[in-house]
TrEMBL record:
<comment type="function">
    <text>DNA repair enzyme that has both DNA N-glycosylase activity and AP-lyase activity. The DNA N-glycosylase activity releases various damaged pyrimidines from DNA by cleaving the N-glycosidic bond, leaving an AP (apurinic/apyrimidinic) site. The AP-lyase activity cleaves the phosphodiester bond 3' to the AP site by a beta-elimination, leaving a 3'-terminal unsaturated sugar and a product with a terminal 5'-phosphate.</text>
</comment>
<feature type="binding site">
    <location>
        <position position="194"/>
    </location>
    <ligand>
        <name>[4Fe-4S] cluster</name>
    </ligand>
</feature>
<dbReference type="GO" id="GO:0006285">
    <property type="term" value="P:base-excision repair, AP site formation"/>
</dbReference>
<keyword id="KW-0227">DNA damage</keyword>
<keyword id="KW-0408">Iron</keyword>
<keyword id="KW-0238">DNA-binding</keyword>
<dbReference type="InterPro" id="IPR000445">
    <property type="entry name" value="HhH_motif"/>
</dbReference>
<keyword id="KW-0540">Nuclease</keyword>
<feature type="binding site">
    <location>
        <position position="210"/>
    </location>
    <ligand>
        <name>[4Fe-4S] cluster</name>
    </ligand>
</feature>
<comment type="similarity">
    <text>Belongs to the Nth/MutY family.</text>
</comment>
<dbReference type="InterPro" id="IPR005759">
    <property type="entry name" value="Nth"/>
</dbReference>
<dbReference type="GO" id="GO:0003677">
    <property type="term" value="F:DNA binding"/>
</dbReference>
<keyword id="KW-0326">Glycosidase</keyword>
<keyword id="KW-0456">Lyase</keyword>
<keyword id="KW-0378">Hydrolase</keyword>
<feature type="domain" description="HhH-GPD">
    <location>
        <begin position="44"/>
        <end position="192"/>
    </location>
</feature>
<dbReference type="GO" id="GO:0141016">
    <property type="term" value="F:G/T mismatch-specific thymine-DNA glycosylase activity"/>
</dbReference>
Length: 228
């Protein structure tokens, strides 16, 4: 009936145990075949669905296969190919700039450190974490996207609002061996059940642990507003 465990560490462990059972095959949903393709896909995925990104990159990577291709791309032509993606003009510019830096400063290889990745245009900590985890097998943090933000607050794992602060809170209570999978599990559950506007609390494996449950509580802790 929507009552979280007393300690946030215990709450996080219980949530993870149930989500591992519910989503045993949870993994990244972006399609890519190289570290650079991964970087491109993650940059494009900001405020855009993975499905839309995958549909776009299926053709994009046939035309632009390497960092050099992106670095040499015409801005207008690249933007046109990205026109179905949110903020496509900006993202075209980010990708061209990042690709130039990769070619000129990193011998055409995607960097493997947080500082070098976040120096690239269009690459913040969230994007860098994804590239490190799935491109280099380096886990330095927890990827905090909109699903992780929403579910972490709803489940009482954090009261923070900024992704950086949420990540710090989660890293304190989630065992490091679960950092990578944590994000995939929360994304899957956020898409399937704990949606932004109308979560299906009746069919949620976490309902009895969730202080935001519509069945028992009047406030959505993700937004701080009453359930409508």
């Amino acid at each position: 009936m929507g009552t979280p465990l007393a300690e946030r560490e215990e709450q996080a462990t219980a949530v993870l145990d149930r989500l591992y059972d519910a989503y045993p095959d949870s993994t990244i949903s972006l399609n890519y075949s190289s570290r650079f393709e991964l970087l491109v896909a993650v940059v494009l995925s900001a405020q855009c669905t993975d499905e839309r990104v995958n549909a776009t990159t299926a053709e994009l990577f046939e035309e632009y296969a390497t960092p050099q291709d992106f670095a040499n791309a015409d801005q207008d032509e690249l933007a046109e190919r990205l026109s179905s993606i949110t903020y496509y003009n900006n993202k075209a510019g980010y990708l061209r700039s990042a690709a130039r830096d990769i070619v000129e400063e990193h011998d055409g290889e995607v960097p493997d450190t947080m500082s070098e990745l976040t120096d690239l245009d269009g690459v913040g900590r969230k994007t860098a974490n994804v590239v490190l985890q799935h491109g280099h097998d380096v886990v330095e943090g927890i990827v905090v996207d909109t699903h992780v933000q929403r579910l972490s607050r709803r489940l009482g794992l954090t009261e923070a609002r900024r992704p950086e602060a949420i990540e710090e809170d989660l890293m304190d209570i989630v065992p490091k061996e679960n950092w990578q999978q944590f994000t995939h599990l929360f994304i899957d559950h956020g898409r399937a059940t704990c949606t932004a506007r109308n979560p299906d609390c009746d069919d949620c494996v976490l309902e009895d642990l969730c202080p935001s449950s519509k069945l028992d509580n009047g406030i959505d802790l993700a937004s701080g507003k009453e359930w409508s």
